[in-house]
Design a protein that fits this description.
Layout lengths: L1 H10 L14 H28 L7 H9 L5 H39 L11 H14 L6 H23 L6 H25 L7 H5 L15 H13 L1 H7 L3 H6 L4 H23 L5 H13 L8 H31 L1 H6 L2 H19 L20 H24 L7 H8 L5 H35 L11 H15 L4 H23 L6 H24 L3 H11 L12 H16 L1 H7 L4 H5 L4 H23 L5 H13 L3 H25 L8 H22 L1
Helix pairs in contact: 2-14, 3-4, 4-9, 4-12, 4-13, 4-14, 5-6, 5-7, 5-12, 6-7, 6-12, 6-30, 7-22, 7-30, 9-12, 13-14, 14-16, 16-22, 17-19, 17-29, 19-27, 19-28, 19-29, 20-21, 20-22, 20-23, 20-27, 21-22, 21-27, 24-27, 28-29, 29-30
Family: Belongs to the binding-protein-dependent transport system permease family. FecCD subfamily.
GO molecular function: transmembrane transporter activity
Protein name: Iron complex transport system permease protein
Length: 712
């Protein structure tokens, strides 16, 4: 160990302190680690027995096992045997295998990146695999199980490769990798949602599977994939010695003869194979791969052997299985007590694991030390040669473009109109059919423009506070929480627009308060704000999935449509909250424009100049949250506008907020207006929600932005 540490120091690598053996003998250390793993195994066994007792019938585990091994072919024994082989055992075995696979995959990814926040979720592996399988179902491609797993492997591998290629391994800046992976996962999830809506019949039932469900019909969906899981696990064990050396740093490992690139490639392939197999079996189970190895790392401070890769793999497998089986047992017991056994079996297990993972991520964020300065923040270079005439010209051009697009939005749809029709409508002389059409379209066009403007301003403020061009209101969980609030109001109360609007407002504001209180306190940092926001977003999405999966098909369709971000049915009265919040925000932002310019540079400059950093950050975050809330109330959940529009504005007119914010608002309005018109026209008389159109257009721009950010 001393030689390894000396080699790390000699190479200049940021070596991690090697795990120190306890003062006792190696045999005692091994016995302590083994005892810890045995204890986890015993607990897993007890939970498995409880798991077998849960279901719609009151059959005991003993009766099920007896029926399996009994030669009796009577009707009662046959029914018990069918219950065991087709329902209880597949659910249990699936939970054990998937939990272990995800735990091992997370352990491998964290070792590969030397990043404690890496997992199949934060590297978008699960999102990529989910999209690949959903696309196959949407386009009617029927594949055998192993071919489906290969397709999921391809999707997950491409997603992880993109994240790592664009964000780097970020062992000194864990938030960069998490942020890039989260935004890529958001883009992939949005494309998946678009496919689910466009191909509703061919993808029927995939929404529940997409939440991560252990409802397996027999062992046939598990057994062919077991060799994949076993082979990938064996591959990781063979890489264990080199991985232990990699924990000292890439430079140190290279100097000691380890081919770092080949090792990282092997770890990535094995981890993606495990994740793809898990997604193919039961759908994406959120954050198991983050929590299990993180808990093992915490235990390693007391049980030193768990710091070694082979022992960490074993512990992560056991804890991953414990998390999945424990979550399934807990949710079924709770729902059984409240709503009965039928609903208890139908609740997706992935909802619970995502909630647990969200809480765990928030705890990690609050415990994380601030990097100090801007080490965790990707700073984009400012454009050169920006003159006053250029700013004025570009601002006027953006305003004219918006006016043209507003006119186009009035003309296009399921019935194409002409400019003369609009003139007659404005003068009150249009035919009745034209009048009805434009009375219906005009508030939709206005809603798209206002929503795009406020989302862009909110995104600009979030990027200023976090000094990160990849951040937007969606990252803070505001949009997702607003959507969750609207779904709660829809399912628990009634389907009125006022009820859903109130629920969306409450959800968005609560999310903003949680983020502000948890990460906006003394000692806060931009990276903490982002991590807490991601945790809040994950929790809100899990609650939304839980509610949608447990309601009737009519409410499901309405909820999915609202979450897609649609202007359908918008009236002039629905625009009042958006317009009022925008008008109230403008004077405050004018007063704070110089302070916003300063806090976008670094933490030190505004303090030197006497700016109250926490106060300006709080004001900007509050305005951003409120603007996002009214946008969700007006048009539902729309992603990427708060990410793309501010960045484009910054490239065009620079960082000064007196120019940056107005141009961002104009570009955001342009983006949503184009998406809304396109969605109303391209498959008329059917319609695509504007939010899904933006979501499909967002990922390509995101990939370019990530590449530009990493290069700079």
């Amino acid at each position: 160990m001393t030689e390894l540490k000396s080699a790390a120091q000699a190479s200049g690598a940021p070596a991690r302190e090697p795990v120190r053996e306890p003062q006792g003998s190696p045999a005692k250390a091994r016995a302590t680690a083994l005892g810890t793993l045995v204890l986890a195994g015993v607990l897993l066994g007890l939970l498995s027995v409880i798991h077998l007792t849960q279901g719609t019938s009151g059959t005991s585990p003993g009766d099920l096992l007896a029926a399996l091994f009994s030669p009796d072919d009577g009707e009662s024994a046959s029914q018990l045997r069918a219950l065991a082989l087709d329902s209880r055992l597949p659910r249990l075995v699936g939970g054990l295998v998937v939990g272990a696979a995800l735990g091992i995959a997370g352990c491998a990814l964290q070792a590969m990146t030397r990043n404690p926040l890496a997992s199949p979720d934060t590297l978008a592996v699960n999102a990529g695999a989910h999209l690949a399988l959903t696309a196959a179902a949407a386009f009617g491609i029927s594949l055998p199980l192993l071919s489906s797993a290969a397709l999921a492997f391809l999707g997950g591998g491409v997603a992880a490769g993109v994240v790592l290629l664009l964000a780097g391994f970020s062992e000194h800046a864990p938030i960069r990798l998490v942020l890039a992976g989260t935004v890529v996962a958001m883009g992939l999830a949005s494309v998946t949602a678009a496919l689910l809506m466009l191909y509703a019949q061919s993808t029927q039932g995939l929404f529940l599977w997409g939440a991560g469900t252990l409802n397996l019909a027999g062992l046939s969906g598990l057994l062919p994939l077991l060799p994949v899981v076993i082979a990938a696990t064996i591959g990781l064990v063979l890489l264990a010695r080199s991985t232990d050396v990699l924990s000292l740093g890439a430079d140190t490992a290279q100097s000691m003869g380890v081919n770092v690139a080949l090792l990282r490639g092997g770890l990535l392939v094995c981890a993606v194979a495990l994740s793809a197999a898990a997604v193919t079996m039961v759908g994406p189970l959120g954050f198991v791969g983050l929590c299990a190895p993180a808990i093992v790392r915490l235990l390693a401070s007391r049980v030193s052997r768990l710091g070694r890769f082979t022992w960490a793999l074993t512990g992560s497998a056991l804890l991953g299985a414990l998390i999945v089986i424990g979550a399934d047992v807990a949710v079924r017991a709770l729902v059984f007590a409240v709503a009965g056994p039928n609903l208890a079996v139908a609740i997706p297990t992935g909802v619970v694991t995502s909630l647990v993972g969200a809480v765990f991520l928030v705890v990690l964020a609050l415990r994380m030390r601030s990097a100090g300065g801007n080490q965790e923040i990707s700073a984009m270079p400012l454009p050169h040669g920006i003159t006053l005439s250029r700013r004025v010209t570009l601002s006027i051009a953006a305003a004219v473009l918006l006016l043209v697009l507003a006119g186009v939005g009035l003309l296009l749809g399921d019935w194409w109109l002409r400019l003369g029709d609009v003139q007659l409508w404005l003068s009150g002389e249009a035919a009745r059919a034209i009048e009805i059409t434009l009375d219906f379209r005009s508030p939709r066009v206005a809603a798209a423009i206002l929503a795009g403007a406020v989302l862009a301003i909110a995104g600009a403020l979030v990027q200023t506070v976090t000094r990160n061009p990849l951040a937007d209101p969606g990252i803070l969980g505001v949009a997702a929480s607003g959507g969750a609030g609207a779904v709660v109001a829809l399912i628990l109360f009634n389907t009125s627009a006022w009820t859903m609007s109130a629920g969306a407002s409450v959800g968005a504001v609560l999310a903003g308060l949680v983020v502000f209180l948890l990460a906006g306190s003394r000692g806060s940092s931009p990276e903490k704000v982002v991590l807490v926001g991601i945790g809040v977003m994950t929790a809100a999405q899990a609650i939304t999935q839980l509610l949608i999966s447990s309601t009737n098909p009519y409410n499901q369709a309405m909820a999915i449509s609202f979450l897609g971000g649609s202007t359908f049915g918008t009236t002039w009265s629905d625009l009042a909250p958006i317009l009022l919040m925008l008008l109230l925000s403008i004077p405050v932002l004018i007063l704070l424009r110089r302070e916003l310019d300063l806090i976008s540079i670094d933490d030190l400059t505004p303090r030197i100049l006497g700016v109250r950093l926490s106060g300006v950050r709080a004001a900007a975050l509050i305005i951003g949250v409120l603007l996002s809330a009214v946008a969700v109330v007006g048009v539902g959940v729309i992603s990427f506008v708060g990410l793309a529009a501010p960045h484009m504005a910054r490239m065009l007119v620079g960082r000064e907020h007196r120019w940056f914010l107005p141009v961002a608002a104009l570009l955001g309005a342009v983006l949503v207006s184009v998406s809304d018109t396109f969605g109303r026209t391209v498959i008329a008389p059917d319609q695509l929600p504007a939010g899904l159109v933006v979501a499909v257009l967002g990922p390509p721009y995101l990939l370019w932005l990530l590449k530009r950010t990493t290069r700079s």
